[in-house]
């Protein structure tokens, strides 16, 4: 993949030495710090900063949390099992629509974890209606065939899982978490988002998770789950563990055995609620550490008009010069001393303007590039660093729409044309169809004009 990128750069006559940013998803073959694509390119050009896609990083945070404990895995298995059961038969779906009038159950997405809120929302607010649909199917005595009896058995099994108080608590917790993560995910996929805004949004999410992990919020979760349990007419308490408590072997130097947690409420709080949130916070810290490093490196450029500490500014400029130096250290994109002086001078021309894009536009419009060359270069590098690759990857997902199993014989040129129209649909909608028809007709005219 590295060779493909280098070959494409040569075809486009773009020098690798001019690369100042590279962004990929979080696949190990792309982000590997030893032999990944970003590492191989950084060996050729140390100034090609690697910024992992924030949307993919957040997706992996949720993936880590959903697989951190057995109860979390079982919860999403039940959600998927519920959708599979109703969607597998038109008869079951008719019974489902009889009780559920608004939202419908949806499958879980294997790649976009933040979109799982769409699968959980119908169950969160229509638990009683879905339970009624399952109950009707399980009690339908007209289903006498082998398949029918099996359907009744499946419906009864899913209904029993649905009315579990542990499942209801898990439903409330995951709905709250996915609502917050969904907002952050959509913001991180914005094409206009910069590094500082990304870090601020991530920090807001961390603050929410830290506040959510409290005894007060846990009691609120139990209250909401109790309300759902009362709607279903079931007991609003955790059932006792029916499994035998496993005794673990200890080393001879241990003073005593660990006391097992026998209270089911406390067990759920520690081994599910706390474990999911702790894993989520740890995963965010681990997966966004590189973004935080880049943020610290360029953060002073987001506060140019308000910089007062000259020593701190000089230190930031020197760090940036070091980061923007070549592999051999003989040349750099900027000069730290000149950059510091230019920022101090530029402050007099700015009226409390700190937006890097607006400042760069001000320099270009007023033809001040020769006066502030180092600021000009630093801002260009900052504003072109890739923050997310999610919007670009959606272009590839268009191929599933354009070239499906009904169009397997489509030619490459036609596929490229249709994909371009689908991707750039806003531009395509503004085109004059009559002019396109005339151009097409004139290009494909069969008669010879004398």
Automatic annotation (TrEMBL):
It holds the Pfam family Dimer_Tnp_hAT. GO terms for molecular function: protein dimerization activity. It comes from the Eukaryota. Residues 369-426 form the HAT C-terminal dimerisation domain. SUPFAM superfamilies: Ribonuclease H-like. This is HAT C-terminal dimerisation domain-containing protein. It comes from Macrosiphum euphorbiae (potato aphid).
């Amino acid at each position: 993949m590295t060779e493909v990128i280098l070959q494409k750069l040569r075809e486009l006559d773009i020098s690798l030495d001019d690369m100042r940013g590279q962004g990929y998803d979080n696949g190990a073959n792309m982000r590997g710090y030893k032999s990944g694509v970003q590492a191989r390119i950084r060996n050729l050009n140390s100034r090609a900063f690697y910024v992992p896609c924030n949307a993919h990083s957040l997706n992996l945070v949720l993936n880590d949390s959903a697989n951190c404990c057995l109860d979390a895995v079982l919860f999403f298995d039940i959600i998927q099992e519920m959708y599979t059961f109703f969607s597998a038969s038109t008869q079951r779906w008719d019974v489902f629509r009889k009780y559920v009038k608004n939202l419908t159950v949806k499958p879980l997405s294997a790649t976009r974890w933040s979109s799982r809120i769409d699968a959980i929302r119908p169950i969160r607010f229509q638990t009683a209606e879905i339970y009624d649909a399952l109950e009707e199917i399980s009690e339908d005595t007209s289903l006498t065939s082998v398949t029918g009896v099996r359907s009744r058995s499946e419906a009864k099994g899913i209904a029993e899982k649905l009315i579990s108080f542990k499942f209801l608590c898990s439903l409330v917790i995951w709905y709250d978490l996915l609502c917050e993560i969904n907002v952050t995910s959509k913001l991180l996929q914005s094409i206009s988002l910069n590094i500082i805004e990304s870090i601020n949004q991530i920090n807001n999410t961390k603050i929410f998770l830290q506040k959510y992990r409290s005894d007060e919020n846990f009691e609120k979760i139990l209250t909401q789950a109790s309300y759902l349990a009362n709607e279903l007419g079931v007991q609003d308490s955790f059932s006792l563990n029916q499994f035998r408590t496993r005794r673990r072997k200890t080393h001879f130097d241990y003073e005593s055995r660990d006391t097992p947690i026998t209270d089911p409420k406390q067990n759920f709080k520690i081994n599910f609620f706390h474990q999911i949130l702790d894993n989520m916070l740890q995963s965010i810290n681990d997966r966004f550490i590189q973004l935080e490093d880049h943020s610290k490196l360029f953060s002073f450029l987001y506060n140019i008009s308000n910089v007062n500490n000259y020593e701190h500014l000089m230190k930031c400029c020197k760090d940036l010069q070091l980061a923007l130096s070549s592999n051999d250290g003989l040349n750099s994109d900027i000069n730290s001393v000149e950059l510091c002086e230019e920022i101090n001078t530029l402050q007099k021309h700015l009226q409390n303007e700190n937006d890097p894009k607006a400042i760069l536009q001000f320099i270009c419009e007023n033809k001040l590039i020769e006066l502030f060359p180092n600021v000009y270069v630093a801002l260009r590098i900052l504003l072109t660093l890739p923050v997310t690759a999610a919007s670009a990857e959606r272009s590839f997902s268009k191929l599933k729409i354009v070239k499906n199993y009904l169009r397997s014989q489509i030619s490459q040129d036609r596929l490229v044309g249709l994909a371009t129209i689908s991707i750039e649909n806003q531009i395509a909608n503004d085109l004059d169809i009559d002019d396109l028809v005339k151009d097409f007709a004139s290009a494909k005219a069969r008669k010879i004009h004398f």
